[in-house]
């Protein structure tokens, strides 16, 4: 048995099978490259589902983390610490909002957004107690808690986890008329991903996001944008909503906010929304801890330079030009996406998304399949053009083979 095989067998024996990882055992990583326990190198074209937008072992982020590790890592919110105010001020400024509520994982931030919207509905909008409704989209992916899977339309994510949390209505993604019909006087929020990542990198039709903005404003409903995967540079802008000049009431952020170093998530909104929470009503032991704040502050400083958004725009144009060429043959049926982010639908006759991912792995490229026949491409934004081209060459070879 090789070291990889031993490690995989032990993981299979002693971990719950809630994932089906590709058979690679990573031992180290830098930039866009990972190295396995046998010393083989792989180009990372997934980037931790966009948590690694700034690449593996990013020097600035590692240095920020190391410096903070030597000072103080956790106080709990029972006390103030000296990185908290800067983190909240800087993140609010990046978002053009007034307040931040930090959590750890994406799902916790979505839960926080749901709780905030409901409380806002009862305290500010005047919705009768227990009647608040949140409208969400078909094909959504917002996390894995019992409340969040309650409004998932993916049977794999939802089945056998009931009883489900009420108070959500699901409408087709991209359909403004359906959204308008679903919004009523008890609706407190519309919660959507500006681009649906897990669904296969689905970009809504032009005009949809501005339409959601207009409708929610007119009906006194909060517009919550889940930018956990789409935000922080991935699409070539700080937020995917920017491509349509839309500013939601609430940003939900995660993944890249922690730079792939620590879990950091947050809800960011104005005072009239986030101001509804009072001490003791909501919180998290680790939310907003000094280590998280130190790393996130460096992430925010990097985003402020605009360099990563520019890279995602330029390399993304190249990526999509190259992928468009693949749609001419019979292997690729559709390509979607924005910036350095693409969903590639493979003709099922050429293999499942999983099989394509395995063949790519054998050629030194790591991607992740979704929904049977789609593969997602989302390399770290620090990838260089030569490596991206090499990765695309491997994809072409796999599809032609
Ligand atoms: C759009 C979106 N929202 C929420 C989440 C949940 O984040 P986490 O896995 O950190 O809980 C994800 C994770 O993939 C996501 O893509």
Automatic annotation (TrEMBL):
Q: Which residues form a coiled coil?
A: none
**Enzyme Commission number:** 2.6.1.13
Molecular-function GO term, any one: pyridoxal phosphate binding
The UniProt entry, under SUPFAM superfamilies, shows: PLP-dependent transferases
Please give the superkingdom of this protein's source. Bacteria
Q: Which GO terms describe its biological process?
A: L-proline biosynthetic process
The UniProt keyword set, sorted, is:
Amino-acid biosynthesis, Aminotransferase, Proline biosynthesis, Pyridoxal phosphate, Transferase
Pathway it works in: Amino-acid biosynthesis; L-proline biosynthesis; L-glutamate 5-semialdehyde from L-ornithine: step 1/1
Q: Which Pfam families match?
A: Aminotran_3
Q: Which cofactor names does the annotation list?
A: pyridoxal 5'-phosphate
Task: Provide the top EC class.
Answer: transferase
Q: Which PANTHER family match?
A: AMINOTRANSFERASE CLASS III, ORNITHINE AMINOTRANSFERASE, MITOCHONDRIAL
The similarity comment for this entry is:
Belongs to the class-III pyridoxal-phosphate-dependent aminotransferase family.
Protein name (Swiss-Prot/TrEMBL): ornithine aminotransferase
Where does this protein come from, organism-wise?
Streptomyces zagrosensis
């Amino acid at each position: 048995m090789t070291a990889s095989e031993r490690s995989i067998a032990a993981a299979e024996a002693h971990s719950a099978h809630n994932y089906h990882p590709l058979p690679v055992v990573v031992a180290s990583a830098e930039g866009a490259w990972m190295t396995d326990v046998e010393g083989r190198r792989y180009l990372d074209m997934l980037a931790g589902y966009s948590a690694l937008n700034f690449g593996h072992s990013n020097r600035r982020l590692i240095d920020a983390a190391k410096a903070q590790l030597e000072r103080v890592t956790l106080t709990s919110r029972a006390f103030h610490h000296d990185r908290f105010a800067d983190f909240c001020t800087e993140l609010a400024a990046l978002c053009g909002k007034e307040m931040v509520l930090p959590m750890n994982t994406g799902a916790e931030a979505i839960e926080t957004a749901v709780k905030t919207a409901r409380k806002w509905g009862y305290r500010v909008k005047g919705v009768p107690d227990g009647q608040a409704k949140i409208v969400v989209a078909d094909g959504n992916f917002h996390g894995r808690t019992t409340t969040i899977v309650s409004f998932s339309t993916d049977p794999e994510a939802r089945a056998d986890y009931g009883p489900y949390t009420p108070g959500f209505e699901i409408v087709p993604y991209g359909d403004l008329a359906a959204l308008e019909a679903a919004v009523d006087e008890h609706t407190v929020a519309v919660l959507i991903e500006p681009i649906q990542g897990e669904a296969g990198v689905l970009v809504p039709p032009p005009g949809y996001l501005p339409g959601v903005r207009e409708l929610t404003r007119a009906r006194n409903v909060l517009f919550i944008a889940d930018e956990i995967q789409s935000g922080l540079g991935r699409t070539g802008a700080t937020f995917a909503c920017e491509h349509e000049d839309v500013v939601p009431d609430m940003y939900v952020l995660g993944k890249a906010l922690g730079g792939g170093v620590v879990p950091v998530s947050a809800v960011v909104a104005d005072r009239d929304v986030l101001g509804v929470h009072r001490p003791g009503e909501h919180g998290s032991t680790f939310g907003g801890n000094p280590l998280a704040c130190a790393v996130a502050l460096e992430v925010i400083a990097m985003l402020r330079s605009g360099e990563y958004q520019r890279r995602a725009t330029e390399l993304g144009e190249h990526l999509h030009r190259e992928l468009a060429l693949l749609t001419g043959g019979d292997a690729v049926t559709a390509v979607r996406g924005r910036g350095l982010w693409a969903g590639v639908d493979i003709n099922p006759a050429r293999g499942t998304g999983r099989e394509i991912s395995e063949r790519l792995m054998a050629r030194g490229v790591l991607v992740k399949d979704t929904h049977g026949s789609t593969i997602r491409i989302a390399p770290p934004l620090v990838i260089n053009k030569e490596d991206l081209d090499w990765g695309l060459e491997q994809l072409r070879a796999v599809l032609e083979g």
